[in-house]
């Protein structure tokens, strides 16, 4: 008898999919970690549906193993003739129906001389074929499954469920998935359902919303697999809202007013608001500038450049923290009067939204032309780290020798609170930003992401409602 091969030899003989460069044809790999099982199993199920369609119902558990073939039933094809009739006697003792009796006996003798056959042969063949097809699919499923396993799990599956894909999947489910009747599993998935997959300080992101929703739906399904009912839709909506960062506050309020019946409807409402918020702001900025021109723009701020130049010259050259990659840091004057941010170079704009605004700022030196308007990606020192903020409608005044940080802008767009005497800018949900008193002005470190540089991975953006309200307020001040 041929000895059983070691499982690692089986791995070597299995038809591992395609070349190293064609990742789309590879079996999704399982890490062997419980936390990764659900996501992997969904991918593996899809792979089986693509590669081995007939085995997909085995993975889903909707195609049980067919019943074994029934035992053969032997008999003759022709029906058994009726038994001979009872003899009928005449008065003289003769049999009046002897001919009918003889004919019946002859028919029975002829029937008994025919060969017996298996009467249910077709049923047996159908059942046998079904069992063979199921077994073949089950064996192929085992082959695909083993290719996805880490080596230590291959050994376990080989020793306990060789060539039995359905039993191997059941083994994995019991080891790594939520199990019916397991209180610990139920508690773990219920706790995960109430967790957040979005950082508390993240800006609005459709991708973040999708991840949170997908995580919650996966955990809800896992709770059902433990044999328990998932939380109600109203409770799911509350868990979802509690997981969203502060940037979604207004969106949450709007969605709650709609009183959606399901988490899906609530999620799609917030998704649509997020999509609108993340739309390209260039056209909005251009429309805003046009509105200011229509209102006779010119009094955005009254700036005394002579005084600021004096302040700038008097500022001690402080030692600034190392700037983020591709940036250079400087001190910005923290101003509570300016309605918009001001920089002194177009190079400090990440994106120009109006290259020829035809606007002017009234200053102590007279009207100063605005060179350009755009969006700046500005790093601020939040605690001991640099955090990037997207600031719209930044004005470029090339005659200005410094950057002007507008407290109005940052309060309106991001909820910052500025305490000059205490030397701090309070950031909602984060550490403070320091304000330094140079003796001539209040300043804070700032660094700009230059045009053409890669966009930072995390950029804080104002909500659409906050941006619209701020622009409306600006327009109202200049009518």
In words, what does this structure look like?
The protein has 479 residues and is an alpha+beta fold. Helix content is 42%, strand content 14%. It is rod-shaped.
Q: What is the makeup of the main sheet?
A: 8 strands, mixed
Number of helices: 16
* Average predicted confidence as pLDDT: 80
Number of domains: 4
Helix-strand makeup class: alpha+beta
Overall spatial form: rod-shaped
Give the distance, in angstroms, between the N- and C-terminal Cα atoms.
Answer: 97 Å
Low-confidence stretches: 1-21, 281-302, 304-311
* Helix percentage range: 40-55%
Rounded to an integer in angstroms, the radius of gyration calculated over CA atoms is 40 Å
Strand residues, percent: 5-15%
In total, the number of strands is 15
Signal peptide: 1-19
Keywords: Signal
Region (Disordered): 61-96
Biased composition (Pro residues): 67-87
Brief summary of the model shown:
Residues 67-87 have a biased composition (Pro residues). The protein has helices at 7-13, 37-51, 56-60, 98-112, 121-147, 151-161, 165-176, 183-193, 206-225, 233-242, 249-258, 263-277, 282-294, 305-314, 407-414, 464-477; strands spanning 74-75, 117-118, 329-335, 342-343, 351-354, 360-363, 366-369, 372-382, 385-396, 403-406, 417-419, 424-426, 433-434, 436-437, 442-448.
Write the layout of secondary structure elements.
Layout: H1 7-13, H2 37-51, H3 56-60, E1 74-75, H4 98-112, E2 117-118, H5 121-147, H6 151-161, H7 165-176, H8 183-193, H9 206-225, H10 233-242, H11 249-258, H12 263-277, H13 282-294, H14 305-314, E3 329-335, E4 342-343, E5 351-354, E6 360-363, E7 366-369, E8 372-382, E9 385-396, E10 403-406, H15 407-414, E11 417-419, E12 424-426, E13 433-434, E14 436-437, E15 442-448, H16 464-477
Parallel strand pairs: 3-10, 4-9
Antiparallel strand pairs: 1-2, 3-15, 5-8, 6-7, 8-9, 8-15, 11-12, 12-13, 14-15
Helix pairs in contact: 5-7, 8-9, 9-12, 11-12, 15-16
